[in-house]
Specification:
about 350 residues; mainly alpha; Ferritin; 2 domains; about 60% helix; globular
């Protein structure tokens, strides 16, 4: 492939002595918090892994996670920005029994890598300072490399199937007035982008369901455990709705991963880490559903996504309330409160 032509300008360039913008602060902070959590999850996974290829994959992911945190810490220290507390050794018990089978680790890493790529792809157009810009470009490239390793292992070990095949169009056509139908009138077949997002949301949610099922199994706090159980039911409902849309068109869908969870009730993670993780995962789902609505054309599918957005947003709010109540919700960087300055 040819590279794009360089543009030589003598205009002003940002340098590393400039103050961080709100976008740079926010994305660096979110990346630090996510990797702070992920690093302890990966360390626990590495205590219980038999497959040598999956072990190497986990080691690569942990190396990236720790490298990202180190770089962000260096940027923050240079700017006098307080290092987030994030998560510590107190939030993981490396001696806890195995909670997940090896295969789950690969599916989990695919989900986590998707979440990371989403953060980095939004950050790159918004950041201007050279060190921050280079950092997120590195995050994007490194995570894409990791994703290729994940996909290679999933396919080589027969742990996943590709998205459904559909016929190649015979000619260019333009849609008719029934294109948006879903409840009334003639309902057209799903188009490629609708299939893509249904498949992607199922793939994400079967991983999310297995994880929240495991968390509900080991959570110590009764209120948090019940929230996880409600989250599991909500996620199951989402999956079944998406699967049905594909099955109505005789298209396959990704299977559940529930059998990859062991029966231990001894928690390897603190309730704080698990609750933060699920609050974050459900927030990412809301974004994913929004992206799905944007490329959808059928009314019936659009309504499924809109209902999911509302219900998943309510879960995030309930999780946030518990985090605040417990004193676990770390304050992100924020604008000045002008009312308190007067």
């Amino acid at each position: 492939m040819k590279k794009i032509k360089p543009i030589k300008l003598s205009s002003y360039k940002t340098n590393t002595s400039e103050k961080l913008t709100s976008a740079e602060m926010g994305k660096l902070w979110a990346t630090y918090m996510g990797n702070s959590m992920a690093s302890f999850i990966l360390k626990y996974f590495l205590q219980h892994v038999d497959d040598k290829h999956i072990k190497t994959l986990l080691e690569n992911a942990l190396q990236l996670s720790e490298e990202f945190m180190k770089t962000i810490k260096g940027i923050f220290e240079k700017d006098g920005f307080p290092i987030p507390k994030g998560f510590t050794e107190e939030d993981v018990n490396l001696g806890a029994p195995r909670l997940f089978l090896d295969e789950f680790y690969v599916h989990y890493l695919k989900y986590a890598s998707k979440a990371g790529l989403s953060i980095y792809s939004i950050a790159i157009p918004l950041v201007f300072r050279e060190d921050v810009k280079e950092f997120f470009r590195h995050c994007m490239d490194s995570t894409m490399d990791l994703m290729e390793q994940i996909k290679e292992i999933l396919m080589h070990k027969g742990l996943i199937s590709k998205p459904p095949l559909i016929p190649v169009p015979e000619k260019v056509e333009f849609v008719h007035k029934d294109f948006l139908n879903g409840y009334l009138g003639n309902k057209r077949p799903l188009h490629a982008m609708e299939i893509t997002h249904l498949y992607d949301n199922i793939e994400n949610n079967v991983t999310s369901k297995a994880l929240i099922m495991a968390f509900a199994q080991v959570a110590k706090d009764e209120k948090i455990r019940k929230l996880f159980e409600r989250g599991k039911d909500l996620t199951t409902n989402n999956i079944e709705n998406y699967k049905q849309k594909l099955h109505d068109e005789d298209l396959p869908s990704p299977p559940y991963l529930d059998d990859l969870i062991t029966n231990t009730i001894f928690s390897p993670f603190s309730d704080k880490l698990m609750l933060f993780h699920k609050m974050d995962m459900f927030s990412i789902k809301v974004r994913s559903f929004g992206n799905s609505v944007a490329v959808n054309g059928r009314h019936d599918i659009g309504m499924v996504y809109l209902k999911a957005i509302m219900k998943n947003s309510y879960f995030v709010e309930n999780a946030a309330r518990i985090m605040i109540e417990k004193g676990w919700f770390e304050q992100p960087p924020a604008a000045a409160d002008r009312d308190k300055l007067s």
